[in-house]
Amino acid sequence: MTDNHQDPATPAAPPAVRPPFADIAAFAACLPPGARLIGIDAGTKTLGLALSDVTRTIASGLETIRRTKFTPDAMRLLEIAASHACGGFVLGFPANLDGSEGPRAQATRAFARNLGKMTPLPILLWDERLSTAAAERMLIEADASRKRRAEVIDKVAATVILQGALDRMQWQRSAS
């Protein structure tokens, strides 16, 4: 006879934590059909969020979360993901222009690792080099005031990040 009860002196094995994806094809392969994605521009003061449509074709700005501490920020992010039936996250990864990783990239990896401990949803680290600059250019071209740009820059940057990943997934689908 086997005993299915664990000895209380033996600690339980930690839940399996999926590391963040760097490969978009592997990330796309584990997404459920029709699930939206959330794009994240993780800054030191805010989390800019964008949301894809269910066909994963178009990204739209969603909201900006003013950062406090990791756990409440992550809980808010997971609430938003659940309310929009999201199947994964595309997290902007701030590599340096030469491809090296600085302190912001390390902080983003830590954010992804810690978020991954709280959710089974896959997380893709997506190169965000120049996304904020592109978002700033778009807002200037749209004649947004300096005050308005400051209010929306993070979610516009998240939209640029997410749209880049969506475009790559679309290209890979059409190429195969």
Structure description:
The protein is an alpha/beta fold and 176 residues long. It has one domain: YqgF/RNase H-like domain (Nucleotidyltransferase, domain 5). It is 43% helix and 20% strand. It has five helices and five strands.
Please render the helix and strand layout as text.
Blueprint: H1 24-29, E1 36-42, E2 46-52, E3 59-66, H2 70-83, E4 86-93, H3 103-116, E5 123-127, H4 131-141, H5 146-175
Helix pairs in contact: 4-5
Which labels suit this protein?
176 residues; 20% strand; 5 helices; alpha/beta; 5-stranded mixed sheet
CATH architecture: 2-Layer Sandwich
> What fraction of the residues are assigned to beta strands by DSSP?
15-25%
**Radius of gyration, CA atoms, in whole angstroms:** 18 Å
Assembly category: single chain
User: Please, what is the average pLDDT?
Assistant: 85
What is the helix/strand order? Answer: HEEEHEHEHH
Structural class: alpha/beta
Distance between the termini: 52 Å
Query: CATH superfamily name?
Result: YqgF/RNase H-like domain
SS elements, strand count = 5
What is the general shape? Answer: globular
Largest sheet: 5 strands, mixed
Q: What fraction, in percent, of the residue positions are helical?
A: 40-55%
- Text of the CATH class: Alpha Beta
Domain count, please report it: 1
Uncertain runs are: 1-8
Task: State the gist of this model.
Helices cover 43% and strands 20% of the residues. It is α/β, with parallel strands linked by helices.
